[in-house]
Amino acid sequence: MAKKQPQTKAKRPQITDGEIPVVGAREPCPCGSGRRYKACHGRAAAQAVTELVHRPFEGLPGECDWVALRELVPAATAELTLKDGLPEGVPSVTLATVLPMAWPALRREDGSVLLGLQNDTASGDISRDLADTLQRALQAKPGTPVQGRRAPAGGPRLQDLLDPAGTFEPEVHSGFEFWVPDAQNATPEVTASLERANAAAIPTVKLTGVDAAYWCETPEKNHLRWVMPHPEEQLLDALARLHAAGRSSLGEGTRLVGSFRAHGLTVPVWDLPSGLLAEDIEKPAAEFAERLAAALATDAPLTPEERRARGGLTNRQVTLS
Fold first, then answer.
1. I need a labelling partner for 136 at 20 to 30 A (CA). Which of 63, 218, 244, 246 fits?
2. DSSP conformational letter for 28
3. 3: buried, middle or exposed (CB in 10 Å: 19+, 13-18, 0-12)?
4. What ranges in 72-157 are assigned the alpha helix state H?
5. Phi, psi of 223 (to 5 degrees)
6. Which residues pair with 206 in a beta bridge?
7. In whole angstroms, what is the distance from residue 161 CA to residue 82 CA?
8. Does the reported pTM lie above 0.85?
9. DSSP letter (8 states) at residue 16
10. What DSSP string runs through 32-67?
11. What are 226-258's pLDDT values in tens digits?
12. Between 317 and 26, where is the model more confident?
């Protein structure tokens, strides 16, 4: 018998962690280790999916408004300023609450980019998912949408791409006509889609006298939902002090009914009479902001009445994210 020749294994090409693409969990890992992806570099990707970043917009200009546009506002846009400037052929980058067909992003025919905010994300870090979508939109062919995907672990976040000195000034719209440059001459299909979206949108107005406070109209009553940047425990203490003193309302017929958590921030909510419009609440909201600032500056222990008020507010608190 012929003697078997010793088999030699071909040396697998080695690639760096930064070059390893995302593949199926049971596929061989692209790094060349011979193990399945889920048992090799997929571990880091899986961990990134399960780890929740509680304040994904922390460090961005207008963090409170980012949260509001993500959770509260049906139709709004905001111009984004990139840290390294706009690439050639991209005249603008605009954040939008919702895009047609729930697209994560859209590169328009003129090269401008629309980035959708209210989309499901594949990982626990909304900022990383949005940054990945934005990068792909900047390179997409004009006139094409960008589909969602799982962002590579360790990829950039919005905080890495956006200018920290830039402004963030949301513009709230009454409808979704910003989807198309010329809504009056849109196709029947687009017109029907706009009509459906507009019919489902709750009328919303951003107050001008205070930051990140949004009035909205519902059939039963109106509401004010105010995203606040203060640490939760400190804010709840301050709200309890005002509530116990009968100073937490925004005027006759209004009532602080509780709060909810959203992306690491606390959002107090007031019920308002149906006839109370956004312009009617501007002055009361500014006056409340002054009362709240004084209450936040107080570090005395809560009184029994204030503790009971705090317990009532905490019992009515829910978490959206």
1. 63
2. B
3. exposed
4. 126-139
5. -140, 155
6. 214
7. 6
8. no
9. -
10. SSSSBGGGTTHHHHHHHHH---S-TTTTSTTHHHHH
11. 999 999 999 999 999 999 999 999 999 999 999
12. 317
